[in-house]
Amino acid sequence: MTYALAWPLQEAVYQLLSGDAGVAGFVADRIYDAPPPAEEIGPDTSPFVTLGDEVVEDWSTQTGGGSRHTFAISVHAERRGFADAKQCAGAISDALDGQMPALSRGRVVNARFLDARTRRSQSDAFRSITLRFQFLLEDTA
Hints:
- The chain is an alpha+beta fold.
- Helix content is 24%, strand content 38%.
- The protein has a single domain, classed as STM4215-like (2-Layer Sandwich).
- Strand 2 and strand 3 form a beta hairpin.
């Protein structure tokens, strides 16, 4: 098993999402590794996306190393409702489900959508949807 494929996977997911017209129609270039500073987020802000939480497990075989990545992508939107967030999450799902993004190290063997969870903030000011995808990666180094 190796964790060395985590960064190449995040790079590839970022490239896929930032290059997808459907996703860009909702978030433009607002795809982050961490949420932007609070002063950049206002009540009239369009949705933005954060890449992040990930669980990595061994997926090695007798002939090579590999890892199973459960990778979360979150859509954050203002409180007008879930409409924008759900449409953006749908575009992300369309962009990633079944895609085999090219990695700078290793290769994607399988990619699939796992699940999604919607949430309202405690202050009811924002909505979020977290989508989880599973990527099976083979280390080719």
